[in-house]
Write a structure and sequence with these properties.
Strand order of the largest sheet: 6-9-10-11-12-13-14-15
GO molecular function: hydrolase activity, acting on carbon-nitrogen (but not peptide) bonds, in cyclic amides
Helix content: 25-40%
Protein name: Dihydropyrimidinase-related protein 5-like
CATH class of the largest domain: Alpha Beta
CATH superfamily of the largest domain: Metal-dependent hydrolases
Distance between the termini: 46 Å
Family: Belongs to the metallo-dependent hydrolases superfamily. Hydantoinase/dihydropyrimidinase family.
Strand content: 15-25%
Shape: globular
Number of helices: 14
CATH topology of the largest domain: TIM Barrel
Length: 533
């Protein structure tokens, strides 16, 4: 605070203070943005604003780790910029968001970052940080990632195994990107779906005349997510890089993640409010606009048990984070795909509702016997601050509703009234080599050093060597994007998913190939579930 600035004091009295490790009845005294005292019968200076929290919970402000604000995606601009989106976040009790910088293919990551900062610094009402998408790969991208980490306060990058011909990286490129993340100490976020088979599934669904929102669920079954999750974890393990899987949406993908954790691999998972609460039956609604409003990727899953399963994984820390993945579009924007589901912009809203909805479904429904510490509110699009003209949780009655939100030591939202100014939020630079991720990796590396691979000491071969035959054919080398080419491998006993001939029409190209009578299975797909922690 400058010498001319008045001291800002806030006293929160009589509430139940909830921390990550314990809960207590206490008062909280804040001065100039810093919590100075927590306890009872506090001795504080005069002039403090007193907030009566009797019978209410006092929680740390929420952190929404994935929001898409002022973003152009699939030929549409999101319905929230950093002003309206962060205001909605504050109304929902979230005091910091992490947005996305999504460069176009071959666009400079640094240029895309600077354009985003130019807009967001002038608009944000709460603190924010930024992920940067690695949407293509090459030496320039490698160097720019290092610059963003060193000079720009970025500590996380998002890679895509989906969005073929848009953002998708090949396995060799993903491997190199993960190696680079490890070298610079960044968080490696990966969207895991089999992009090749998603593209094939979409084409075949359209060929069958399936053009509505149900096509998003039909073309992206959960096995394509589970396969990609397993592949992403394998690639990260070979790169010796911690991995953070985003938008985990299915039980099978959750099982793969749980199995990897049991094996000691450094992997973390994030799901979304929508995936943890809703199911994919919405895509089959008779009203096209209703069905399209729920289009996101990976899609919501048909199995009605999936949301509770994902909440259970959050409860036992197999999944670590729940985010809104807020990317709102209007019905008019979604209607760009009215005749072709592949053109419906992917995204749903939720930055305002995230904490209340997860409290309602994950705490009230499973843990609390009464609701004595909470206010009540019914969610409605007519009363929301966030963008979009549909609310996925319409008419859901919530028993945990933010009444007062404090950011940077000032009341910014109280009983439906905002007292924050446009641009009052600040960019929050994030440090690299997160202890939570990289200390675990260091411990794992120590174990692996004890199992280091060694070559066999033997006498050199002194026999004859056959001459290389030149057939006149041009040798095929690696493509320009492969700076470190790897040998092609095949796994016996299973179909190569990248070259699968599976057809939705029913007839398969290999139906006449004799099948093996049996196969020895060492572990079921996704690993054993007998020891999931």
């Amino acid at each position: 605070m400058s010498s001319s600035s008045a001291t800002v004091r806030i006293l929160i009295k009589g509430g139940k203070v909830v921390n990550d490790d314990f809960t207590q009845e206490a008062d909280v005294y804040i001065e100039n943005g810093i919590i100075q005292q927590v306890g009872k019968e506090l001795m504080i200076p005069g002039g403090a604003k007193v907030i009566d929290a009797t019978g209410k919970l006092v929680l740390p402000g929420g952190l929404d780790t994935s929001v898409h604000l002022n973003e152009s995606f699939m030929n549409a601009n999101t319905a929230d910029d950093f002003y309206s989106g962060t205001k909605a976040a504050l109304a929902g009790g979230t005091t910091m968001v992490i947005g996305h910088v999504l460069p176009e293919k071959n666009e400079s990551l640094l240029d895309a970052y600077e354009k985003c900062r130019f807009h967001s610094d002038a608009k944000a009402c709460c603190d924010y940080a930024l992920h940067v998408g690695v949407t293509w790969w090459g030496p320039k991208v490698r160097a720019q990632m290092e610059t963003l980490v060193r000079d720009k306060g970025v500590n996380s990058f998002q890679m895509f195994m989906a969005y073929k011909d848009m953002y998708m990286l090949r396995d060799s490129e993903l491997f190199q990107a993960l190696q680079n993340c490890k070298d610079i100490g960044a968080v490696a976020r990966v969207h895991a779906e089999n992009g090749e088979l998603v593209a094939e599934g979409a084409r075949e669904a359209l060929d069958l005349g399936i053009s509505g929102p149900e096509g998003i669920e039909i073309s992206r079954p959960e096995e394509l997510e589970a396969e990609a999750v397993h592949r992403a974890i394998t690639i990260a393990n070979r790169a010796h890089c911690p991995i953070y899987l985003v938008n985990v949406s299915s039980m099978s993908a959750g099982d793969v993640l749980a199995s990897a954790k049991m094996q000691g691999k450094v992997v973390h998972g994030e799901t979304t409010t929508a995936h943890a609460v809703l199911n994919g039956l919405q895509y089959y609604h008779q009203d096209w606009a209703h069905a399209a409003a729920f289009v996101t990727v990976p899609p919501l899953r048909l199995d009605p048990n999936t949301p509770n399963y994902l909440l259970g994984l959050l409860g036992n820390d197999t999944l670590n984070v729940v985010t809104s993945d807020h990317r709102p579009f209007t019905t008019k924007q979604k209607a760009m795909g009215k005749d072709d589901f592949t053109k419906i912009p992917h995204g749903v809203s939720g930055v305002q509702d995230r904490m209340s909805v997860i409290w309602e479904r994950g705490v009230v429904c499973f843990s609390l016997q009464n609701n004595e510490f909470n206010s009540n509110q019914t969610i409605s699009v007519s009363t929301q601050w966030q963008g979009g003209d549909v609310n996925l949780y319409e008419n859901l009655r919530c028993h945990g509703v933010p009444l007062v939100t404090i950011s940077r030591g000032r009341v910014v939202y109280e009983n439906g009234i905002f007292t924050c100014a446009e641009g009052s939020g600040k960019f929050y630079p994030l440090r690299t080599f997160s202890d939570y991720l990289y200390k675990k990796m260091v411990q794992r590396e120590k174990v692996l050093k004890c199992q280091a691979l060694k070559g066999v000491e033997r006498a050199p071969y002194t026999g004859d060597v056959a001459a290389v035959q030149n057939s006149g054919k041009k040798e095929v080398g690696p493509s320009d994007g492969d700076m470190n080419p790897r040998p092609c491998t095949r796994h016996g006993g299973m179909r190569d998913l990248h070259e699968s001939s599976f057809s939705l029409s029913g007839t398969q190209i290999d139906e006449n190939v004799p099948k093996r009578a049996s196969a020895r299975i060492l572990a079921p797909p996704g690993g054993r579930s007998s020891g999931i922690w």
